[in-house]
Design goal:
2 copies of one chain form a homodimer.
Chain A (H helix, E strand, L loop, with lengths): L3 E6 L1 H18 L6 E6 L2 H17 L4 E5 L8 H4 L18 E9 L3 H11 L6 E9 L11 E5 L6 E6 L1 H4 L3 E6 L1
Parallel strand pairs in A: 2-3, 2-4, 4-5, 5-6
Antiparallel strand pairs in A: 1-8, 7-8
Chain lengths: 179, 179
């Protein structure tokens, strides 16, 4: 059975959102001092890379970045996986006194972000953790909010929000699938 | 040297806020099914008790409540305390599939709330954790937000916000102290 699909953001809209978020990050943090961009696997990694590139291009400096795999920290880990992989986390510096911008593609229940904050704390005590997401689809189950939001999509619980990025899907788009 | 003080909320304003928050909690959760009110020590405990009483009075049912001491979970625990006490946490039921309303007096950096979410997860997997605070004073260091807010006070970092409650301070009031 074919799922009904609707494009919510196309490549141009995604590009514009990421550019705007880049400037918001720079403004809020008054530049790039102690700034680190960390993408959450898998969805946030490409978005984090793009934000890094954009910031580097604007500021003319290389910016620190990392990747976080939160499989082990999720509160549902016992029910969904018995073989959590850990090697996918890559944070090659202590986070003490750093300003971390945590990046994910979709913000939904907030449980992934809670787990990500937990995981980050194992790498030191950041001065600040900010959250950047491409799509905020609502339906929060924890008191979490994003600092930087591409688009807000008050989607139904029965819909699926899929973010495709050129890096692995040949195309930038945010698609809504009805289940 | 005397500190300059300003009353930000008096007893009547606090009472009105708590009543309004009570109705918001009932509306958002469509009643009291699986609802649990948990106050964070020390500041949130009396507020949690008052919300419980108000909900019980309106709904005519006793509502579950608990108390959380997050000393051990704070990311700064090693630097501020070498003797964390634990006995002050009182949650006499598993939180699996419960709707938890976490209560604190002041929301500031968000670090207490992150620690509280962590602590709650040790008591099961709540269906939802909502956050109720009397004063949101801004200056967040983590991507945390409250669901139910008494008053928003964009206070200066150099000010101190003190919530007094009759139960231990003889008086209901929120005071701003300039340092």
């Amino acid at each position: 059975m074919m799922k009904k699909k609707k494009v919510f953001m196309d490549a141009e809209e995604i590009e514009r959102s990421l550019t705007r978020i880049t400037y918001e990050i720079l403004e809020r943090n008054k530049g790039t001092d102690n700034l680190i961009i960390i993408g959450i696997r898998k969805g946030g990694v490409f978005m984090a890379e793009r934000l890094c590139e954009k910031i580097s291009a604007i500021e003319g400096t290389q910016i620190m970045s990392g990747t976080l795999d939160i499989t082990l920290y999720r509160d549902d880990v016992l029910t969904t996986s018995r073989n959590p992989e850990f090697e996918k986390t890559y944070i090659p510096f202590p986070l003490d006194n750093k300003r971390v911008v945590l990046v994910d593609d979709v913000l939904f229940t907030g449980r992934t972000i809670r787990a990500a904050m937990d995981a980050l704390m194992d790498f030191g005590r950041p001065e600040r953790i900010q959250l950047a997401v491409l799509v905020d689809r609502g339906h929060r189950e924890l008191p979490i909010r994003a600092d930087f939001i591409g688009e807000t999509l008050p989607s139904s619980l029965w819909e699926n929000v899929v973010v495709n990025m050129t890096e692995d899907r040949n195309k930038d788009e945010v698609v809504i699938e009805e289940g």
